[in-house]
Amino acid sequence: MEGKDLKTLIKNYMEYRKEYYEKNKELFAKLAEEGQKPKVFFITCSDSRVVPSIITKGDPGDLFVLRVIGNFVPPHESALEYSGVASAIEYAVSVLEVEHIIVCGHSQCGACKALYQDIPEDPEMMAIKKWLKVAEPVKEYVLKEIGNKTVDKEKLAELTEKTSIKFQIKNLMTYPGVKRRVENGELSIHGWYFNIRTGEIEYYDQERDTFIPLEQYKG
Ligand SMILES: [Zn+2]
């Protein structure tokens, strides 16, 4: 579905100034003066259909956000190769000292789908080709899980998207700051799965190794 054109977005911006900004003027002034102190670091896909502050009804100052294709988190050993992602992780965890990291994957994820496609050796696609390698172990794991069973495209997509969330959590734990603060009980990592069609979120229950509606989350 086509998104709004730039003209409309600029018109909306003017409405935002009149409405949202006017209503929250003090909040903005406080944030400007005192700086940010978000409790949550939200890592999600660049996909335009996943909008962190809308699905959490968050205000400015609530979420430190990293949006990157497929919400893939490269393991720390390759952190300097992917320093944009690694910097956001280090800043959120060791400087802002967030209390939670949410890795939010989603349905119909183009990046997860692309893991099963051949990306051509095209100078315009080189970064994508390399970036998808971060999630190569996800694909390998899923294909092994499936084995000889036949699964339809949708099932394969969902299995890949959900497995990827688990792998990205594991990769996050390879960052020294993340590991230290999780082990000290200062930081928790959560895996969320956002369903674009239904608007529902499921969270990953590590003990039961399964995804459960977020309404049932007990913390
Ligand atoms: Zn995606």
TrEMBL record:
User: Which residues make up the binding site for Zn(2+)?
Assistant: C45, H106, C109
SMART domains on file: Pro_CA
Which processes are annotated in GO (biological process)?
carbon utilization
User: What keywords does the record list, in alphabetical order?
Assistant: Lyase, Metal-binding, Zinc
Catalysis: reaction(s) = hydrogencarbonate + H(+) = CO2 + H2O
Provide the leader sequence positions.
none
Q: E.C. number, please? A: 4.2.1.1
Q: Single GO molecular-function term?
A: carbonate dehydratase activity
List cofactor names only.
Zn(2+)
Where on the tree of life does the source sit, at the highest rank?
Archaea
What's noted on cofactor binding? Binds 1 zinc ion per subunit.
The first-level EC class reads: lyase
Stored PANTHER family: CARBONIC ANHYDRASE
**Family designation:** Belongs to the beta-class carbonic anhydrase family.
Its recorded name reads: carbonic anhydrase
Organism of derivation: Methanothermococcus okinawensis
